[in-house]
């Protein structure tokens, strides 16, 4: 029987799950994926948590305690989400240990409402790092203009960072520069660079969604022929930049001090258009030193019928550049596409965060009326301890 996920992993692609929930943790489902599907990482975001906490039953015992203490909703959300992330970090700890800290990571995002406030983002990142208190945590910081100096400052504190919401090539170059500057400062501050990790989350399917919409509006045969090509071309050209930066003398000085490279992470890799192959953004973005974070259905789809064709990025740079040239020729302004996607990305996560706050606010009110299941607190604590496996 072909182990397609094993082959993908052997090709240098770290397989991460783009989902997290209390149900997944308490059922042992996350640990099963780690053991059986080559899973070595987990990402979360406000949308994922808003969905997870819409099922309040799994959180009732904790919500009742929080309501009894009279906590404000934002503090309650922090305690609920960091509880899940801490638990997930413990589940993924074997992968962290097996890869000397490169993988086995779990990502937790700063409040998206801080996306344009540098100092508050850094303070939030530090607070989350203290609260989760696990070495295999990633703090997610968006790659906005205000986020760039926050990335550097957070890394300088010795805190591992997942840079999120990257859509454009120039912004990606700025992210890599912020990473290098952060490690240089971390080294000057006396931190062990081998303990600091980072990935740069380059969004994929959303690029095609926006570009395809514009191509449909243009309507010519030449425009329609370019549908479904922009996102892969964009990611491939990002990988080209990654290879150049991490072959530089500047990087080598950090590598000599024990640093790990900031790997490109392909995010949003489920296809949104049903006309496209469901594993397209996995098959077409295979190269050493990358991460692909997928929803569980995409992981299972690739395990079932994914095609391995070796490295599908390196050597495809000229074709990718031609796609960009052709897009410009038919009237697609990629610089405007990137601006729109970044703005919408931040807005969507802000909306999900507000939805999460509203949902927890209502759940706290219900819990304060005496809702909750007797004995659930003990049950939840026992489950957490069992899943953690002693990895404090």
UniProtKB/TrEMBL annotation:
<dbReference type="GO" id="GO:0004801">
    <property type="term" value="F:transaldolase activity"/>
</dbReference>
<feature type="active site" description="Schiff-base intermediate with substrate">
    <location>
        <position position="140"/>
    </location>
</feature>
<dbReference type="InterPro" id="IPR004732">
    <property type="entry name" value="Transaldolase_2"/>
</dbReference>
<feature type="region of interest" description="Disordered">
    <location>
        <begin position="366"/>
        <end position="392"/>
    </location>
</feature>
<keyword id="KW-0570">Pentose shunt</keyword>
<keyword id="KW-0963">Cytoplasm</keyword>
<comment type="pathway">
    <text>Carbohydrate degradation; pentose phosphate pathway; D-glyceraldehyde 3-phosphate and beta-D-fructose 6-phosphate from D-ribose 5-phosphate and D-xylulose 5-phosphate (non-oxidative stage): step 2/3.</text>
</comment>
<keyword id="KW-0704">Schiff base</keyword>
<protein>
    <recommendedName>
        <fullName>Transaldolase</fullName>
        <ecNumber>2.2.1.2</ecNumber>
    </recommendedName>
</protein>
<dbReference type="GO" id="GO:0005975">
    <property type="term" value="P:carbohydrate metabolic process"/>
</dbReference>
<dbReference type="InterPro" id="IPR018225">
    <property type="entry name" value="Transaldolase_AS"/>
</dbReference>
<comment type="similarity">
    <text>Belongs to the transaldolase family. Type 2 subfamily.</text>
</comment>
<dbReference type="InterPro" id="IPR001585">
    <property type="entry name" value="TAL/FSA"/>
</dbReference>
<keyword id="KW-0808">Transferase</keyword>
<dbReference type="GO" id="GO:0006098">
    <property type="term" value="P:pentose-phosphate shunt"/>
</dbReference>
<feature type="compositionally biased region" description="Low complexity">
    <location>
        <begin position="374"/>
        <end position="392"/>
    </location>
</feature>
<comment type="function">
    <text>Transaldolase is important for the balance of metabolites in the pentose-phosphate pathway.</text>
</comment>
<dbReference type="GO" id="GO:0005737">
    <property type="term" value="C:cytoplasm"/>
</dbReference>
<dbReference type="Pfam" id="PF00923">
    <property type="entry name" value="TAL_FSA"/>
</dbReference>
<dbReference type="InterPro" id="IPR013785">
    <property type="entry name" value="Aldolase_TIM"/>
</dbReference>
């Amino acid at each position: 029987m072909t182990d397609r996920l094993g082959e993908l992993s052997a090709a240098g692609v770290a397989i991460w799950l783009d989902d997290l929930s209390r149900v997944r943790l308490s059922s042992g489902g996350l640990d099963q994926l780690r053991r059986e599907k080559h899973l070595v990482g987990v990402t979360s975001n406000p949308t994922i948590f808003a969905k997870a906490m819409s099922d309040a039953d799994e959180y009732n015992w904790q919500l009742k305690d929080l309501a009894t203490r009279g906590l404000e909703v934002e503090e309650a959300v922090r305690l609920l989400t960091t509880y899940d992330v801490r638990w997930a970090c413990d589940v993924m700890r074997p992968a962290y240990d097996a890869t000397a800290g490169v993988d086995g990571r779990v990502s937790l995002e700063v409040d998206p409402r801080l996306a344009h406030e540098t100092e508050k983002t850094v303070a939030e990142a530090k607070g989350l790092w203290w609260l989760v208190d696990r070495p295999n945590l990633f703090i997610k910081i968006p790659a906005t203009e205000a986020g760039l100096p926050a990335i550097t400052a957070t890394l300088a504190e010795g805190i591992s960072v997942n840079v999120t919401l990257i859509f454009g090539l120039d912004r990606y170059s700025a992210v890599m520069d912020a990473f290098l500057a952060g490690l240089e400062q971390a080294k000057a501050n006396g931190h062990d660079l081998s303990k600091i990790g980072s990935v740069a989350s380059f969004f994929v399917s959303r690029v095609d969604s926006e570009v395809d919409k514009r191509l449909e509006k243009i309507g010519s045969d030449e425009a329609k022929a370019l549908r479904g090509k922009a996102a892969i071309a964009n990611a491939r050209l990002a990988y080209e930049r990654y290879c150049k930066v991490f072959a530089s003398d500047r990087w080598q000085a950090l590598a000599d001090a024990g640093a790990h490279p900031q790997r490109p992470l392909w995010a949003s890799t489920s296809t949104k258009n049903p006309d496209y192959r469901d594993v397209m953004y996995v098959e077409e973005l295979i190269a050493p030193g990358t991460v692909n974070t997928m929803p569980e259905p995409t992981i299972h789809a690739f395990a079932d019928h994914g095609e391995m064709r070796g490295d599908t990025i390196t050597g495809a740079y000229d074709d990718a550049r031609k796609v960009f040239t052709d897009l410009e020729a038919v009237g697609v302004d990629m610089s405007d596409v990137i601006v729109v996607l970044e703005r919408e990305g931040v807005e969507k996560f802000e909306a999900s965060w507000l939805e999460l706050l509203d949902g927890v606010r209502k759940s706290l009110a219900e819990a304060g009326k005496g809702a909750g299941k007797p004995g659930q607190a003990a049950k939840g604590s026992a489950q957490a301890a069992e899943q953690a496996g002693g990895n404090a």
